Structures are given as C-alpha cells and as structure tokens.
Automatic annotation (TrEMBL):
Annotated compartments: Cell outer membrane
Top-level taxonomy: Bacteria, Pseudomonadati, Pseudomonadota, Alphaproteobacteria, Hyphomicrobiales
Keyword Protein transport: no
Family of the protein in this entry: Belongs to the alphaproteobacteria porin family.
Protein's UniProt name: Porin
SUPFAM superfamilies: Porins
Free-text domain note: Consists of 16-stranded beta-barrel sheets, with large surface-exposed loops, that form a transmembrane pore at the center of each barrel. The pore is partially ocluded by a peptide loop that folds into the pore lumen.
Length: 401
C-alpha cells in the first residue's frame, strides 16, 4: 500500500463516520412562547395567576388631586399666614393622593380565600395646630392680627393603611372599616358625605358574613374602634350586627351597634331604590342613645357623640341619589340633618373625560344648629369652628386603574 492509497482510505473512513454521526444527531425543537401572565377570570376582570401558584392577584388604585375652597367638612377652613405682616388669609385646600390596592383570591376546601389591602399616600396643606411667631413686634401689626397664629403648611400628610384584611369563606379578620357603615352602605356618591356624620370608620375587626340566599344576608362584627373615644378600654369589644334584603329593584338593610366604652346603642335603617337605568335613590335614618356620651371632660363626648352615634342628638337622616345623564356624566346629591338641627347639602357633577379619568365638581353647604358650646359657653359649634353657616367647593381629578 502506497501513501496515496492510505490517504484516500483515511478520507473515506472520516466521511463515513461523519455521515453516521450526522444521522444520529438530536434535533432541538423551537422554544414555545412563554405565557408570563395567565388570566384569572373567576373573581372578575383584572386578575391574573401569580406564577407557580393557584392564587389570583389584582393590582389597582388611583391617583387623585383635590382643589378646595371654603370651610365645609374636610376642607377645614384652610388658612395661611402672611409672613410679612402676620395677617391670616384664607387659602386653597390642596391634596394629592396615591392609593395602592391589591386583591387576591383562591379556592380552597373551606371556601374562597381572599385578601384586600389599601394604602394611601398624601401630600397637601392642612391645619396642623402649629403656630407662627412674627419676626417683628406685635405692636406693628394691625389690631386684628395676633402675635401668634395657627398656620396651614403644605407637606406630607402621612401614609395610612385603610384596609388589610383576610377572609376565608364568611370569616373576615384584619383592618377594615366598621360594618356599621360598610354593610349598610355609605351616604351617597358625593365627596363630602359626612357633613352630618353617620359613624366612624377605621377599626380592626373579626367578622362573619352570612349569605342565606334569595337576597338575604347578614353580618356580625366584633370591632376595636379607633382614637381616644372609640378604642375599647377592656377586653369587651364593640359589637355590630346587620341584616339586608337585596332585589333587582334595590335593597332594605339595617345595622345595630353596641359601644362597649359607653354602653350605648346606635342603629341605622336604609332603603335603596333603583328607579331605572338612569336614576337611583337612597334614604337612611339613624337613632342612638347618648345618656353616657355627654362627658364634659371630653371634647367630643361633651356633645353626645361616640364611635358609632356621631350625629348630634338622638336621631339623624340622610337622603339623596344619582342621575346619569349619559354613560359619561352623572349628577349626585345628598341632604342630611340631625336632632341638634345640624344640616348639610352636597351636590356634584362627575364627568368621565376618558375611561379611568374622572373630573368631579362639588358644592357643599352646612348649618350648625348648636352654636353655643354647652361646656365652655363660647360661641362655637361642636367642631370648634365659629361659623353657623359655611359654604365650600371642591374640584377633584382622579385617574383610577
């Protein structure tokens, strides 16, 4: 065998081996498109499965900007100090808010496991109770200008955890708003719905919801309350119970609350009526005992107001409704009054510029019947303001998502 024959034989062998390996090679399949978000439509729109779990999650919230004038309700009579002469001037009430909401849902052998959270971040101006001392002697000011006056600065107003609850089946525990309000319903679609207040809100709860079918439902809620007036001072919780009957025409509902601090009882009944696709109406009446609420050592209880019965006197009422001009524009109205001859009126027009972006313009009026403080015998109403009649307006921009 010569060199030429050896080279040709080696080349033939390499070609044969290469061909065999090529025939045995594994073909790699094209990668399938990854499904990063799997839609979950069991609990409504906006939910998706958390990857690797059976839990459905929804994330939402809103960004809001309020511009207010006047001194009705939460407008708090915004004032500012002239830093040149110390005069007090009325000013705009301003607030920007970012609210983050989360919902989760999952089916279990014990029923649906749900959670809800809502956190609010605020920036704006408000009466903080601080003071301003003029840089020049008070004698240089006008007689109406005191040397030390309240200020109303703009700044961060803090973060609030408004909701953080867990619910399994009918059992709910965590941070919520009182069932005295949530179960029977808030007082209309106006911004200032508490000109005549209908109960406090923030509380920790242990609740159970019953769904009896045919539109009948009920709730029992053990609550902790909030603030120096509302928080329980022993191991006895506040207790709220409610029943509701809901039909296509509307609903009839009622709630009763026991205030364990003052051993007082308050209740509300409500009627909701859906007249047609454009008109919906409501009426609500509240009654509460106040024998132990007239405490002269407490600023709020000196006026017979507790955590649940926050209106003046024994009884109060609220009524109003919504009229939808079209799919974008609605008119909302609420009127209210109580036993102490306090009255309120709130009306607004809400317009959806585009889906998710609403502008609301509201006008509010209040009248305080008890103008003379029974404890200090001074000419102020129960909120500490010195006006018997007040008017305010609010312009709200809100982008919900």
């Amino acid at each position: 065998m010569n060199i030429k024959s050896l080279l040709l034989g080696s080349a033939a062998a390499l070609i044969a081996v290469s061909g065999a390996r090529a025939a045995d090679a594994v073909t790699v399949a094209e990668p399938e498109p990854a499904e990063y978000v799997k839609i979950c439509d069991v609990y409504g729109s906006g939910y998706f499965y958390i990857p690797g779990t059976e839990t459905c999650l929804r994330i939402g919230g809103y960004v809001r900007y309020d511009i207010g004038i006047g001194d009705v309700g939460s407008f708090d009579g915004a004032k500012n100090v002239d830093h040149q002469d110390g005069d007090i001037h009325s000013t705009f009430y301003k607030q920007a808010r970012f609210t983050l909401k989360t919902w989760t849902g999952q089916e279990t052998e014990l029923g649906t496991l749900k959670t809800y959270t809502e956190t609010r971040f605020n920036f704006g101006n408000h009466n903080r109770g601080a003071s301003f001392t003029p840089a020049v002697p008070a004698t240089t000011f006008t007689p109406a200008s005191p040397a030390v006056v309240s200020d109303n600065p703009a700044g961060f107003k803090g973060v609030s955890l408004n909701f953080a609850w867990i619910q399994l089946g009918g059992l709910r525990v965590g941070k919520d708003e009182s069932a005295f309000n949530t179960f029977i319903g808030y007082a209309g679609n106006v911004i200032q719905d508490t000109i005549v207040p209908y109960g406090d809100f923030d509380t920790n709860v242990v609740q159970y919801y019953f769904d009896a079918g045919n539109g009948f439902s009920a709730v029992v809620s053990l609550e902790e309350g909030a603030g120096t007036v509302g928080t329980i001072d022993s191991y006895v919780p506040h207790v709220v119970g409610g029943v509701k009957w809901t039909q296509g025409w509307g609903a009839i509902s009622g709630v009763v609350a026991y205030d364990s601090n003052y051993e007082e009882v308050a209740g509300k009944v409500r009627l909701d009526v859906t007249v047609n696709d454009a008109i919906s109406l409501f009426g609500m009446f509240g009654y509460g005992s106040d024998n132990n609420l007239n405490d002269p050592t407490n600023v709020i209880n000196a006026h017979g107001r507790g955590f649940y019965k926050q209106w003046g006197g024994n009884w109060a009422w609220w009524a109003g409704g919504t009229y939808k001009f079209n799919e974008k524009t609605s008119f909302n109205l609420q009127v209210s009054g109580d036993d102490d001859k306090n009255y309120g009126l709130a009306a607004n027009v809400a317009y959806d510029i585009v889906p998710g972006f609403t502008v609301t313009a509201e006008v509010d009026w209040d009248h305080y019947g008890r103008f003379n403080d029974p404890v200090t015998n001074t000419n102020v109403n129960w909120t500490g303001a010195d006006k018997k009649n007040s008017v305010g307006g609010l312009l709200r921009f809100q982008r919900s998502f």
